[in-house]
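mind reviewing this stuff:

——
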Amino acid sequence: MLKWCKDLRIGEGVKKADKIRRKLNHGKIVPGVYLITFSENPRNLLEIIPALTIIQQSAADICPEIIGLAGDKDEAVDMVVEIIQEVYDATGDFRIEEYWKNR
């Protein structure tokens, strides 16, 4: 089962976000959708993952908490920039996961 943030950020290019979440939770293919997640790699701030990569159960099991849904890759990149800028403006730091979970 995927881990979804309570305050999930949804891009304008995403239509029927609830339906997309249901499909992803059940391992169904959702082309063109990108997920924004916290990074497991300490050298990265966030990750952009094509939704197609998590249809395999093993990939879904290790997927970090999802904080954003984007309708295409450009929107995903823009969303990551907005999130990083928001955190930096609020804290003067780049501790995104800590900020996101404590706001």
The first strand starts at residue 4 and ends at 10.
